[in-house]
Structure prediction request, 275 residues.
Amino acid sequence: MPTSSSLVRDILVERLEALLHDCELVMDTSAHGQAFHDLDDFLYTEGRKFTQEILQQKFQERIEKTENADEAKQCPHCKKKQVQHKKSKTIASAHGHITLRRRYRRCSQCKEHFFPADATLGLTAGYSSGLKRLAARCCGLWSYRLSEENLQEFLGIHLSYTTLGKIAGHTAEEISARLQNNPDVRHDFQKAKGDIEFYADGTFVHIRNDDGKAEWREFKVGAYVVKWSHYLTKACPASNRLKLWTQIPTSALKASNDKLAVRIMPLQFDPQLAK
Ligand SMILES: [Zn+2]
Prediction:
């Protein structure tokens, strides 16, 4: 793997020139009326590979630079020089997976080990903030399995649905912590005028398939809550009321002799569940 800045630059410039040359070839060999579509498809895959390579090469270069600093070579506690090895790490980014090599340092005196570049450059999570944002958005809209398929289709990024579930879980913890530290967010929400509140969550159900095989499948459920008086007048067709709605009294609304109507509904089933 190249480490000097000029060598990295030379490699990337050479790859860019090859890519531009291939763009010409693609359009030269396109059928009548197809050049635009062919170039678009070509860059969808090859352009992405190139940006992925830039990320990998430029970041590896930055790792080397960081590790050459004096403070990265010594134990942060006793300041002694440490034993070091190189270890690779694969990280998921918004441009796909990249593999980086960074130094592992172990202090024999303090009996501790460190990856100096991980903390300094933001590699501890194993995925980038950009990827986390994309994954969290997908998981908020679709099941983990559909999120896996769509991330692959839209961005060429492969993450298993279990990994996506873990990233979504970490994101939910971060949001929850942010709410704890910012009571104003909750306060504003509770004070907001409106007749409907909506909640959603994901869970797993245990099912048995036609062939007798049992497994856990994912699905999302949502509940929306309206004032009972609102429900009676406009919220829901009469035919659905008895079947789908329950009413629960709440202390908050007792004073006005009102109740809450809650509807729980499946938002999105795993396609396998619908079979
Ligand atoms: Zn030490």
Q: What stands out?
A: Residues 194-274 form one domain.
